[in-house]
Specification:
Largest sheet: 4 strands, mixed
Shape: elongated
Radius of gyration: 18 Å
Strand order of the largest sheet: 2-1-3-4
Protein name: F-type ATPase subunit delta
Number of strands: 4
Number of domains: 2
Distance between the termini: 41 Å
Number of helices: 5
């Protein structure tokens, strides 16, 4: 990437605040063109993720990354309800966890309730 994803995200969100409702579409088009010129269009997922983190922080919430082992995500739905409406919760399925859930809050605090971690703890002691 020519610039870090966080730099792109901050620039876009600041521009979005300054732009009126009519200019939003032009801003998105120009931002996409900038990413394409810089060869960073393939990294749009990273940039979008950084935008979500910044939006959560600005609204007084937290960015929660939740990894679940089951495909239907029934347990994740229950856990999602425990967080504030201001929080941004991203749920992803990782079958390699075997069972359980791994939660990362603001990329600082990790809560690992996965079976994979329990097996690792059991055999590494």
């Amino acid at each position: 990437m020519k610039y870090p994803a966080e730099t792109y995200a901050k620039a876009f969100l600041e521009g979005l605040e300054d732009a009126g409702k009519k200019r939003e579409r032009a801003l998105v088009k120009n931002f996409t063109s900038l990413l394409e010129r810089n060869g960073d269009l393939a990294d749009h997922d990273k940039i979008y993720l950084e935008m979500e983190k910044l939006i959560a922080k600005k609204s007084g919430g937290r960015f929660i990354s939740m990894e679940v082992a089951d495909k239907n995500g029934a347990g994740a739905k229950k856990l999602t309800n425990l967080f504030s409406k201001k929080d941004v919760v991203k749920v992803s399925v990782l079958p390699e966890l075997l069972a359980g859930t791994r939660i990362l809050i603001d990329q600082e605090k990790e809560l690992d309730f996965s079976f994979k971690r329990r097996l690792k703890d059991l055999f590494e002691k």
